[in-house]
Batch of 2 targets.
Target 1
Amino acid sequence: MNATRLRFTLFTYLISASVVGSSAWLPRIVFGQTNTYIVTELSGSDLGQVASKLNNLGVVVGRAASDQHGETRVTVWNGASLRARHLGVLAGGDYSSGSDINDAGQIAGLSNTSKAVLPIIWTGAAGFERLPLIRGDNCGQAIAINGQGNVAGYSSGRNGSKAFLWTRNSGTRNLGTLPGGNTSRARDMNDFDEVVGTSGSSAGQRAVLWTKTGSIRDLGVLSGDSKSEATAINNAGDVVGYSVGPRGMRAFVWTKREGMQEIGSGLGGTSSRALDINDAGDVVGSFASASGDHAFRWNRSSGMTDLNTEDSLKMGMLFIEAHAINSVGQILVLGEAAHQAHTGTDPSQDYPCAPAPPSTFLLTPTRVR
């Protein structure tokens, strides 16, 4: 993409640890010690626009209003120019949303019809395909899709929601619940058909792992807590999420060897949530502090890092929640930008006019030379 054109279509910044050459159009701010991020704002004026996930090629999926129809559609931002492409809906529907995308460009999500909201998969030339619900249910959503095109989600009816795994060969399988529970929801899956999410149990809501063989494993809670939820899993089987109790909400990482461990709010925050993990073990999420919610990145070597810096805040960018990270370290972040400030028509007065839609930023890492 031409740099000048990019400057006017997307807000792009370089967050850098040191000066690495010169640029006439990318402002620089200090960040960290070894990495830099190119920060690109995907957001527009659409209040309903949401970027949900990205694949390892940097292709982003979510939802946004279609210029042609004026209605919300599954939207794909390509990895090269981040140009938005709006997809369709199921027959009889007027709304669709993308939840996840794999490296083949296959998408999991939902679309409505005249009667219900239903889980869907989009595979390119074949368009949208409605996924079967668990017998007796009437609505649902596809949440995650892996490299084989298998899908995890949940199916709902009068008996509550149940997590499911769908494959083209086996159809939709009810993943079930823990003993004493009657509801469950899937949140993510890996390429080995391991699914994570939450299940009711006799002890309350628990983070769970459904194995490829069909068993369900209670991942437990952090010490003193009463409930938990798993939000993501990588191909090593490492799981992240959060545990809740008297001390508030605490982010965790769970491994088969070490069990559940608190990531902690080492930045002085009062609570935290881990929302995604890549195959390198990098975790992203959000933590609450005295100044509000901030996005973080965590790994075992460097601990928890606030994705905000003094310089980024001076430039008018506030990163609130990091909710997706891919294998090359690109991060999807929800936040606010200075240009969102709405003022009245009188330039001598500065007062709020209407709430601004949230901004979505794509942080692309690069190395300092």
Target 2
Amino acid sequence: MIYLGQAREERKHLKAIEHFLGKRIRYGRDILPEKTLTRLREARECAQEALRWGTSGPNRGEILKKLESQYGDLLRTDKHHGRRENAEVALVAIALALGVRAYFLQPFKIPTHSMRPTLLGILNEPESRPPPSWPVRIFDLVWSGKGWHRAVAPKDGIVMSVREGRLFGVIPWTTTEILADGWTESLWTGLPQSREGGLKVRAGDRVNAGEVLANFSSVSGDHLFVNKVIYQVRKPDRGETFVFTTDGIEGIESGLRLRGIEGSQYYIKRCVALGGDRLQIKPPVLWINGQPALDPLCQRVAAQKDGYSGYTLGPTFLTHPEESYQVPKKDYWAMGDNSPNSFDSRGWGPVPARNLVGKGAFVYWPFSKRWGLIH
């Protein structure tokens, strides 16, 4: 039994040596001297010979001694070898991730509610009760992207300022800081989000100890992957959710510049019509080429059920039920499913084909009823 146990250990050791030598040959084929590569191949052949079933125990032991005496220097690695190997694996993983992002799938976050209820943006809502326990809050954040925010005045005072800052003054995480004479309260979210969630206090306000300054929850917008390959092989179809850039769409970018935002943005809408289509909106129905839109997804919006409000008239285009618009041949017409609250082609016109990024493919977080393929 002792001999059998020793034989198993020898075979295990030889398998590890053979695997190690093979890896060194593969990794060093282009950089190691030919003499070193030759010795590595010889050592590997010895290990393979020892592993053959016809090799007796004594011969196997002799081969192990030969490997140690003649090729021992090849079997030893410096102390940094493992770190280098891990670094190589990490670099390959990063390169693959960047390649996938650049050419195949791009992550995208829904910022607004223009596609509600198909896709949800960031939602800040006042709460009447204090936040739940920390385990529940952590679960809510990980599973559904829901965070809880609450600020209470520790003592009486006059608010000196309400401003945005950084976490602990250094970490680039936007916070809301409420500064009074002698104390400071912080919320882990930006000032606009805090105002939307119910923060009413402003500079100069007098507050009392124990007064609730803010108490709200914040749900992260849906995170999804955009299929960047599909529009390289075919054109968008009616009814698809697609992502595009605002580059050159003056009706969008002029408004961005007024807000101090330079450069193009990414928008996500539903492609409701193609180049050549003639459109009308007879609320709540979108008409295409003289008849109600036939695509099931457009019909779902027009049905005014399950949270959909139907299609509404626009501020610039399609402002009246009798007005029509023909989409230019190579362009697309984009509209949000939350039509009454969507800034879309009704305001700034068609989307040029050159602006297309890809099709909304899959919601990967949070794990809500919208998780999965996008329709």
